[in-house]
Amino acid sequence: MALTTGVALAGCSSSGSAPELKVSGAFMPQPVGDMAGGFLTVTNSGDTADKLTSITSSLSDDVQIHETKNQKMQQVTSFDIPAHGELNLERGGSHIMFTAIKKEPKQGEKVGIELHFEKTDPIKVELPVEAQTHNPKQH
Q1: What pLDDT digit, counting tens, does each position of 74-92 carry?
Q2: Sequence-distant (≥ 6) Cβ neighbours of residue 42 within 8 angstroms
């Protein structure tokens, strides 16, 4: 038992250069129809960059990550999360896109998602469902 613990601690102590991710500001505007958007910020306080590679949710079997360039949305395979930086998924920019949602969540409910990364273990996040017009930058 002590040997296993020692190995685990050694793994932790050498991970000073690993990504250290934290999610904040997550929300979903109340969807209309069978599609929904999701927004959040992933902050990396670690010394190593990481990538957001996919998102899963019980709300939809098809959750994509999109970037907006030249006012056009396009699906991407990953987003970079720089060391000592952040990834902002926000209105008008890069975002989470839920297609063929199984039910329309209402304002006040929460939608569970799981973020998957290249290096870091998955992170489970609850997206509070807000008014369709909700924009945290306007507060």
Answers
A1: 999 999 999 999 999 998 8
A2: 21, 22, 23, 52, 81, 86, 87, 89, 115
Please say whether the beta carbons of 27 and 37 come within 8 A.
no
Strand pairing report for 50-57 and 36-44: unpaired
One-letter amino acid for residue 80 of the chain: D
Of 101, 76, 73, 90, which Cα lies nearest the Cα of 27? 90
Which residue, 85, 82, 83, 52, is CA-closest to 67? 52
CA angle, 98 as apex, 94 and 100 as ends, to 5°?
Answer: 150
Q: How far is CA 116 from CA 6, 108, 119, 121, 136, in A?
A: 28, 25, 9, 7, 24
Round the CA-based radius of gyration of the chain to a whole number and report it: 17
- The DSSP string of 67-115 is EEETTEEEEES-EEE-TTEEEEE-TTSSEEEEES-SS-PPTT-EEEEEE
Q: Are 59 and 28 in contact (CB under 8 A)?
A: no
Residues 36-63 pLDDT 10s? 999 999 999 999 999 999 999 999 999 9
